Records
---
Amino acid sequence: MKPCLAKKPMTSIRSFSHALVIAAVGLAGCASQRPLPDDGFVDVPGGRVAFRVIGGGGSVPVLLIHGGPGGTSCAYASTVDGIASSRPVVLYDQLGSGNSDRMLDLKRDAVLPRFVMEVQAIREQLHLKEVHLVGHSWGATVALEYLLTANPTGVRSVSFVGPLLSTRRWVEDANELVRQLPQDAQDAIRAAKSTGNYDTPRFKAANEIFEANFGARTPREQRHLPVCASTPVRFNAQLYEYMWGPSEFVANGTLRDYDRFAQLSTLKLPTLFLVGEYDEARPDTAREFQAQVPGAIVKVIAGAGHSVTIDQTAAFNAAIAEFILGAEKVRPGSD
């Protein structure tokens, strides 16, 4: 059977409506779980980032910022059907991963302000005058930094999903979760931290136990993510280690001192903190974040780990869609 879409790379996008026409024509009659090619590229500092558009309709689009650093948008393309049933969802691969250009200079390109510029470039070149932001994990970091430093207009709401908003709090949460692991896994993690050697079989086995409990709880063989099959670089480990560190519970990269907890109170737009019941971004921490933002909402997805979009896809879609509909009842610019 022929694929539903042929690859349509474009070196530039003149209008968002043009991109939506391409997406709508290609998606007609297609099952959303089938592999989707990139709709084009956006020029950003350091190179080009690849984007794709899922869904359609006349409602305000969603711009989804994937996790990492070094992750991709590929898994999200198969897990946003509910959100995309009434509005376009714009996904993109950050520079250095997925179908985007590689980073030629980590010191120059792997910095938070440049990732903020990616969001600016995507909105400008795709003419996203109004948008709902959804940032997952490290993507929430980028979304928050964009709101705090770029002074954007037209952002109708923000959803922080399993958010990294304070490295100190993230590591504290991770250490608490490690204490819930079997003793032999705890011992292996403690040994790796003390020696700095994270390449041992014992540590790798312990890390897999951690991920199975608090990362993606759905077994690999049950994850239905065909769109990732055609993604050249699904995870950029070099970028992850440079910015974060060797594991989820060891932060010795450039983000080791990141902390925006004190600035959360300056947010003046509808805000959702969404986490899984077993999330690495623990529900208790999400509630502390919520308390800093006037009118913010917390939603905890039962049975999900950090990869809430994979573990509880329908519940994730329903929560984001419900929140966005509520946010659209709020007059833009009102507190």
---
Amino acid sequence: MSVSATPSAIVIIPARGGSQGVPLKNLQRVDGVTLVGRAVQSALAAPSVELVVVSTDHDEIAAEARAHGARIVARPAEIAGHTASSESALLHVLDTVEAGDDSAPAHALPPVTVLLQATSPFIDPADLDTAVRRVASGERDVVIAVAETHDFQWRLDGEEASPVGHSTDFRPRRQDRAPHFRETGAFYVMRTDGFRERQVRFFGEIGLQPVASEWSIEIDEPRDLWLARELVAQPADVDLGRPHDAELHGIQALVTDFDGVHTDDHAYVSQDGTEQVRVSRGDGMGVALLRRTGVPMLILSTETNPVVAARAAKLKMDVLHGVDDKAGALRTWIEANGLDPAHVVYVGNDVNDLPAMSLVGWPVAVADARPEVREAARLVLSRPGGDGAVREICDRILAAHQSAVAAAGTAVSATAGRA
């Protein structure tokens, strides 16, 4: 059976503002990116996905999802309460997309509909893409995400315990037992016409799409959020087979704070009040190498000391200093340079960097940043401020750029070879 490479799915992400277990759960961050942002990113990274829509009743969630590339459909109050089903949100979105609304014209519905839940922060686009293609090809009517498990399960009927799916008389070894599967809740892929007819997510022939069990967390309680953050905080030498590790490809600009990033956040003060700071010469080489790629770079600081401008001039970087509203200044600079915020890096170290970090797709923290900044960062550098942090981020952006150029060259060569 052939499987078309043409995008064939609409992904719908229900994301209410209310939450029973974790307040404003969909705006909580894992690895520096909100849960709703992660969900949109995963969906858009699957080649078979044509359109990603977030159904929400919350303005901030809508803004966050839109910033990551999703279309927004406002959810009516009658289907926005905690008792409303996900199916009701999906059906409302399908009707809205098909008919068109103030935000977008009518759009023909793709043959496959996906319910994707932002509470699953580690969705691998490859798994999602495979599941969509299985439904699009006609192999199954519905395909759901599951994780393999070999555990022995029990239930309690009152005070009496009884085994589920096994017997106490025979306890085979793990390798001798057929696996069973746990529904992860990450995604449900369905034929669009079948779902609209049945109005439930399970119908017809159902297939299972196994996903990595160690990453199949569903965030319902604060401890789930803690565990997700702990997983991504593991050191690089701990290989957990992390799905779809993001790389610094497509970066359009680098913006850095000054004190605590270019410096070690200390100052030498003479008896006449003159201040001096310590910087890394290696940072200068990193900036020079990255500048050759044409990536714009900006130092953005609240510090009024002329040393900021002097260092920026030395590095040939744009500079805005003595700025109280760093987020506003950054937004203006991004717009003036015609940049996509999703492809901008901002490196910070202290709490006054948080508003600016929230504006960009790549908030980055130096190794010795404040805990709040590290938590908000998508990437935490291995080097502290003033000791190679700027060189590290420049090298990483440059490496990603060179990798992309090499990949493009390989693709061109392969095309030429087939000509």
